[in-house]
Design a protein that fits this description.
3 domains, 16 helices, 392 residues, six-stranded mixed beta sheet, alpha/beta, Rossmann fold
Length: 392
């Protein structure tokens, strides 16, 4: 950690050049002799990445940034805040601390939090930033989290682990057994020192396959941000043996879209089916990841268009965890029918349809954008159709 970065003039230079072209900046040269251009540019690039993802850090003074890979790997403030609202108690240990965004938010709910980070420089950076952010209930340990857990040898109300999804060559991995630490191997140790364990994993993991790797899973949280699945959270509780609750959430600027169900419900539930009615509904990505297709129909009493289309319809408008549309018109899928509509610009979506969005745009000469939404799909009679919709 180079303390010269915190020099007032250098900090001013960083803030002044956040929108500057990096190559131009390097060609022009850095007007400081106490710091090299590569280090300074790394600070500028890292801070730029935090503007929307980590606004608390971005808008605070004297913040020291790690390399941009650390920023890419860290949770956003929105997802960190969601996680923090799942925990309570006196103590929590984060054994894979990283840049410390999750730890920072946990500290708002927990009396004493321990941040473990094996990388010495990153641990120093996090400790410095917490001081600037005026956080005083987090202890930073420059130590392997598992070693720290054994050395401290005490019970924590919560243990949090976000295994590294990079191998020794920095290649991306996502399976539990390929990540570090290997949660499948160490889950017994984690539950020894904490009754409650939260594991953050890649959104790419298969839910059922991962459940066979983990014991005592009480809840699975599928967390999406602005309709993009960002992470899966696995809540383990010591000795828990009952059904697993799946909580799908789509975090949006003003609201949260929530849908909960027991993981065994999907196989027990049967979907209703109907031809398109007045309104059309498209589930958000967290529900699609959860695979709760029959359960959405059964719980909300709303029919699907087809077993594999994953679009729903109703006569009366309902609250729905996803996008809602008014069906203005429906036509069969063929060039002649579509030509009569004289549509040259629209938003195109396919569900259970043989052509891709790109192929459809090319075939029917549709430009992207506008206020119309076209759904190319299949109904339960296996008829290909186009639903011309307006967004609600």
């Amino acid at each position: 950690m180079n303390s010269e970065i915190l020099n007032t003039e250098i900090q001013a230079f960083i803030n002044k050049n956040l929108k500057a072209d990096i190559n131009t900046l390097l060609l022009k040269g850095i007007p400081f002799s106490t710091i090299d251009s590569k280090t300074l540019v790394a600070q500028i690039e890292a801070k730029k990445r935090c503007e929307k993802k980590l606004p608390t850090w971005y808008n605070s003074q004297q913040i020291y940034y790690p390399n941009k890979l650390n920023i890419e790997q860290t949770s956003s403030e929105a997802t960190a805040n969601y996680k923090a609202n799942l925990v309570s108690g006196e103590s929590l240990i984060d054994i894979t601390g990283g840049f410390g965004v999750d730890t920072f938010y946990f500290s708002k709910q927990i009396k004493k939090v321990t941040h473990c980070e094996i990388d010495t420089e990153l641990s120093q950076i996090v400790k410095h930033n917490y001081k600037k952010l005026k956080v005083n209930n987090i202890e930073c340990l420059n130590e392997n989290g598992i070693d720290a857990l054994k050395r401290i040898n005490q019970q924590f109300d919560w243990l949090y682990v976000d295994p590294s999804r990079r191998d020794n060559t920095q290649k991306k991995v996502f399976l539990l057994t390929d990540c570090e630490p290997n949660v499948k191997t160490f889950q017994g140790l984690f539950l020894k020192y904490s009754e409650n364990v939260m594991v953050k994993t890649s959104p790419l993991l298969d839910l059922k396959a991962t459940l066979s790797d983990l014991n005592h899973v009480k809840e699975i949280h599928i967390v999406a941000l602005n309709n993009e699945v960002k992470e899966l959270l696995w809540i383990l509780e010591r000795d828990y043996k009952d059904e697993v609750l799946v909580k799908s959430v789509n975090l949006r600027k003003e609201t949260q879209q929530l849908f909960d169900f027991m993981i065994t419900e999907e196989s027990r539930n049967h979907a209703l089916f109907s031809l398109p009615l007045t309104y059309l509904y498209e589930p958000n990505v967290s529900i699609l990841k959860a695979g709760a297709f029959n359960t959405v129909s059964a719980k909300l009493n709303i029919p699907k268009l087809h077993q594999h289309s994953h679009l729903y319809t109703s006569k009366d408008l309902i609250d729905f965890p996803g996008r809602r549309f008014k069906i203005e018109k429906q036509i069969p899928f063929n060039k002649k029918s579509f030509a009569k509509e004289k549509i040259s610009k629209a938003n195109v979506t396919t569900r259970n349809f043989p052509l891709s969005v790109g192929d459809i745009r090319k075939k029917l000469k549709i430009k992207d954008g506008g206020s119309l939404y076209l759904f190319f799909t299949t109904n339960f009679n296996d008829e290909k159709l186009i639903l011309i919709c307006s967004k609600i």
